[in-house]
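Action item from last week, closing it out:
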Amino acid sequence: MTENELSNKIIGLSMEVHSSLGPGLLESAYKECLFYKINEAGIYVEKEKAMPLIFDDVKLDCGYRIDLLVEDKLVIELKSVEVINDIHLAQILTYLKLGNYKLGLLMNFNVIRLKEGIRRVVNGL
């Protein structure tokens, strides 16, 4: 599947999770449920994928973790906040750049309609 096909599938699964749970829970609850739904759909997904930082040709483990990495190509960053702001966007852009990924989804589950909480983020590579 391409990144776009994956993102469409993941958005659909996310909407199922949000419809079932609604807004107001912790990010970790949405992450676990979405991880479960993606696995159930037969799609390879990693949770809390370590994202090392390369500095001066040295690989450093700085504690960065991608919430969900789907098929080694789609970065999903989950939030459950009042509003998505620039620092959240910067976070997913950094993950895309560090991992050389093309596409990410920044998803805020703390909204009435999940559609309003989803941002597709593209790495200009």
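Closing note: The chain has a mean pLDDT of 93.
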